[in-house]
């Protein structure tokens, strides 16, 4: 066993992923004969056949499938160990991989990153917008440290910590809002022209469920995949939209219009892999997130 090195594990995983020695060798930047020789050496060392080479594609044997499962975990744990070794507890340096569902970039990420830079300027941040299912998959693959999304049914191995309750309202420019009753009955939405987020946003699904529950069908004139676009459209046209209340607080040209009954609230959560190594940067970001939410007065989670 001592003859095996980390490169052997990476070689085997590459062949298993591609099902082909040539493509795996190209990815690894080694020759195909060298890769084949290294895998055979690995099999001789272990005393078992790991790959079935008889078909059109190379496949794992039963023993190979078991071994690669442990190999992936071993490499993941070693990567976590490297981060732990280089993790500076005084946070003079460090790095954080964070993903959020898209609406949070409009009101939460700016204050969070500003606070992170103020408290820990040596900590760098990689920020990605993605749907919630991809956030959870990336956390499980150890490609992310943290995610910000919504409470609900989560993948096994994901821990969700409630942060605050998000409320949504109908939103219009000031002149249009002044002409609407306060609150606006849900049935009156059938007479409104709306600009809404496109269907790939979780928020749009939340809005559509409200419409369906109350049996109203507004005229959806514009769909956009950008909150900034919606805020510009609404403040310059008679159209209305639906946005989190926290966004309208930062836009003085937008006016929230309460609905009767109101749109259901949602619980915002901080996500991480249950058994993941928690770096000093991760702990620091978690703490400042809770501090900032209290400071800004967001409603506590239900």
Structure, described:
It is a single chain. The chain is an alpha/beta fold and 302 residues long. The chain has three domains: 6-84, Arc Repressor Mutant, subunit A (Orthogonal Bundle), CATH 1.10.10.10; 94-165 and 267-296, Periplasmic binding protein-like II (D-Maltodextrin-Binding Protein, domain 2, 3-Layer(aba) Sandwich), CATH 3.40.190.10; 168-264, D-Maltodextrin-Binding Protein, domain 2 (3-Layer(aba) Sandwich), CATH 3.40.190. It has eleven helices and 14 strands. The protein has a five-stranded mixed sheet, with helices on both faces. The protein has a three-stranded antiparallel sheet with strand order 11-7-12. It has a two-stranded antiparallel sheet with strand order 1-2. Helix 5 (109-119) links the parallel strand 3 (94-100) and strand 4. Helix 1 packs across helix 2 (21-28), helix 1 (6-18) crosses helix 4 and helix 5 (109-119) crosses helix 11. The longest helix has 25 residues, at 62-86. The model has no long low-confidence stretch (mean pLDDT 91). This is Transcriptional regulator. Keywords: DNA-binding, Transcription, Transcription regulation. Residues 4-61 form the HTH lysR-type domain. One of its GO terms (cellular component) is cytosol. InterPro entries: HTH-type_LysR_regulators, LysR_HTH_N, LysR_subst-bd, WH-like_DNA-bd_sf, WH_DNA-bd_sf.
